[in-house]
Amino acid sequence: MKNCILFLFLVNFCYTQAQNINLIKKESLLKTVSFLSSPELNGRLPGSPGYMKAAEFMASEFIKIGLLPAGDSSYFQFTNVEYTEISDQFYFMLLHAGKPITTYKHGDDYIFRTNTGSGHVKAEVVFCGYGISEPASGYDDYKEIDVKNKIVLVFKQNPGWEKNNQKWDEMLTRYKAQTASKHGALAILYVSIPGNWDGGAPIGSIMDGDGYYNQNIPQLHISYKVADDLLKETKRNLKSIKSKIDSMQSPDSFSTEISVEISVESKYSKNKKSANIVGFLEGKSKEDGYLIIGAHLDHVGRQGDLYFPGANDNASGSAAVLEIAKAFAADKKPERSVYFVLFTSEEQGLLGAKKFVESPPSTLEKCQAYINMDCIGHGDSIQVGCGKTSVNLWKLVKKSDSLLTKQMTERTWPGGGADAEPFYQKKIPTAYFVTTNSYKHLHLPSDKVETLNTGLFESIVRLAFVTSWNIANGKYTREKIE
């Protein structure tokens, strides 16, 4: 019965063939993910040798398929990114009477922010709330607290409330590090707010916002356990502290009466060359527009012996782009042309996708849709985002799912998100493929190929292929995006 339904689906749509869907197999997907998430590539930090090796590998695969190069230089569309290399020699210790009593474990107890500055610091820790200093808006965590030559501990996330209509969205870790430094602090420790999705585990991250980069202030993300150690003398805890600050919408900063020692060396480059990888499959019609299928190739790199594999985020999406390209290239030309793109620097703020939409290989007015795949290998069902804005595109995916996988939820959202966001900002219809409950290992050393749901992975890639094939063969025409 299942095969009969699949056959009817294929006949009714008339735009793909069973053997093309069957070309997309979990074994091939996993082979690509295994290489991209291997220690050899060191977590694919944008601009790093490991990232460029991944980029060259994927470009070589595009060549084998027969995709045409569509970058600035062959398959590569270059862009400059910030890049920080952390040395292998570092430590973080708890002190008592100036002497170390606990040496914390890198990975479990703390992780350096990927763009950490350098420094050797031994000082008292002062808690400074959300790390925000905006006196003009009526909120200042640094008011009446001395942090000069000390180490600041702050919540990594921002308040869920506004003070005098002040929005905190842009006050990311770079802002918080700069603010701490301006007040005389020597280093900054971030801790997740109580009950955060990460469970308090320190994660690898290079998303820290724009502006001046301070190369002389070490930045660490610490665990709840370490935070408890630092608050022990005050007989306070993170939950009660946050509750007080939030209920009063007023700072509650204080000395922990605890000291720590931090040592780290890093080398910063303001402009490091990285690249998108762009392949092109020419369609039969040169007047009927084109489709873009994409995913980000980058992840968050390595620190010493600890590397972040990024199997689900986003070797899974990158492998999917490759397998869909193979399935397209194995058949006769589609009516519309297709660009297959692997973006750099999504983790730094969508820099690769922004570069692409600002310097596209073809005019964006002819782009019928953008298909994004990000974190599609772990979880328990399929979600397709952007459906409240790209309504007709979402319905096309849902119709395909009802006849093919039957694993797609009703949940969706408006706009874009991740690498779909720059396309949405250009009023291009977008469909963001992701799995439900996909983020258990997000930005952790445990994001390995062994954690993937292989059956679901294969299903979502097949669904993305069928959707893309139907778009490329005229089953969908660009809708108006408000």
Name the features.
482 residues; alpha/beta; eight-stranded mixed beta sheet; 20 strands
Residues in helices, as a percent range: 25-40%
Give a count of the beta strands, DSSP E runs of length 2 or more. Answer: 20
How much strand content do the residues show? 15-25%
Q: Which parts are unreliable, with pLDDT below 50 for 5 consecutive residues or more?
A: 4-11, 13-18
Query: Which overall shape is indicated by the principal axes computed on the Cα atoms?
Result: elongated
Largest sheet: 8 strands, mixed
- What's the tally of helices? 12
| SSE-based structural type | alpha/beta
Query: Taking all residues together, what is the mean pLDDT?
Result: 94
Task: Please state the CA-atom Rg, rounded to the nearest Å.
Answer: 24 Å
- Our measurement of the CA-to-CA distance between the termini, rounded to an integer number of angstroms, reads 42 Å
